[in-house]
Design brief:
Layout: H1 51-64, H2 74-88
Helix pairs in contact: 1-2
């Protein structure tokens, strides 16, 4: 079962199940995959961001020369991380 406690710093969800792995050559998810869930749908998305999110978001904020907000929720932090990854070119 996938839950929000298994988040990486960016908020991606992972499940160790071969049917959810990407195909080797195409890079596309296999049918039925649900390895990434929208942060707005997380049941714990309104909890404070995790330590890993906080650390990574601080690094990204510094690189992007943006103000760091330490009071974001898990879901808000995940979205901000995605935004700053695109802005800085990190993690892509």
């Amino acid at each position: 079962m996938i839950n929000e406690d298994n988040l990486s710093a960016s908020g991606d969800l992972f499940e160790d199940d071969s049917k959810h792995r990407k195909t080797e050559n195409s890079g596309e998810d296999l049918a039925g995959s649900n390895t990434k869930k929208d942060p707005d749908e997380w049941t714990t998305g309104d909890e404070p961001m995790t330590g890993a999110q906080k650390s990574y978001l601080k690094t990204l904020s510094d690189e992007a020369k943006e103000e760091f907000d330490e009071n974001l929720t898990k879901a808000e932090a995940s979205k901000k991380i995605d935004e700053l990854q695109h802005k800085t070119g990190r993690g892509l």
